[in-house]
Write a structure and sequence with these properties.
Layout: E1 2-6, H1 21-32, E2 39-40, E3 44-50, E4 54-60, H2 67-78, E5 85-91, E6 99-102, H3 111-120, E7 127-131, H4 139-146, H5 152-172, H6 177-184
Parallel strand pairs: 1-4, 1-5, 5-7
Antiparallel strand pairs: 2-3, 3-4, 6-7
Helix pairs in contact: 1-5, 2-3, 5-6
Length: 198
């Protein structure tokens, strides 16, 4: 049994904001799987899927800073090991739309991950990071940035990133994590002003 966690904040005002890219990937996966009805648990909405083993896909409803409560609800009740919990998160330190997949690691200052680590008692769970870019190191600017929607210029990169992240999740359900990392940790090609790529 596996648990997939898309991180974000509930509420219409947070929809499609940078901090909610985990929700966007979760929604894309549910749509792919034909799971159109999200059920309500105490601290999350969720869908069930078989791929071929049972998978729970959840969106915590606790707000970002308390995401670990929802994660521990499912891991404790269904006896899911941390290595079988895949978290999808936004990452300020990656360029907008770039993916980075890790088998484990620190929270990197991400409040959702801090909460998950606290409730699981470990950093050893996999995660898919999706870049949302970094405006500045000023804390107030960072808070404003993560709660903004993506610009028109960024939309194409984000839509592609959501699609690739969903692909990575599906590969993780069937393949070894090393294969997933080799496939999706490639840096995207960047088109230069003269039309060539680097």
């Amino acid at each position: 049994m596996k648990l997939i966690v898309g991180l974000g904040n509930i509420g219409r005002e947070y929809a499609n904001t940078r901090h909610n890219i985990g929700f966007m990937v979760a929604d894309a996966l549910a749509q792919r799987w034909g799971e159109n009805t999200w059920r309500q648990a105490d601290n999350a909405t969720y869908v069930e899927h078989r791929a071929p083993e049972k998978v729970y896909l959840i969106k915590p409803t606790t707000f970002m800073n308390l995401s670990g409560i929802a994660v521990s609800d499912f891991t404790n009740f269904y006896h899911i090991e941390p290595a079988d919990v895949l978290v999808i998160q936004d990452d300020l330190d990656l360029p907008c739309g770039q993916l980075r997949i890790r088998r484990k690691g620190s929270s990197g200052g991400h409040n959702g991950l801090k909460s998950i680590e606290r409730h699981l008692g470990t950093q050893e769970y996999p995660r898919i990071k999706i870049g949302i870019s970094h405006p500045t190191r000023d804390e107030d600017a960072v808070v404003e940035h993560v709660l903004q929607q993506f610009s028109t210029f960024e939309q194409e990169a984000i839509q592609e990133a959501v699609h690739k992240a969903a692909d990575a999740v599906e590969m993780w359900l069937h393949e070894d994590m090393n294969k997933v990392m080799q496939e999706f940790n490639k840096k995207p090609k960047v088109e230069k002003k003269d039309g060539t790529e680097e």
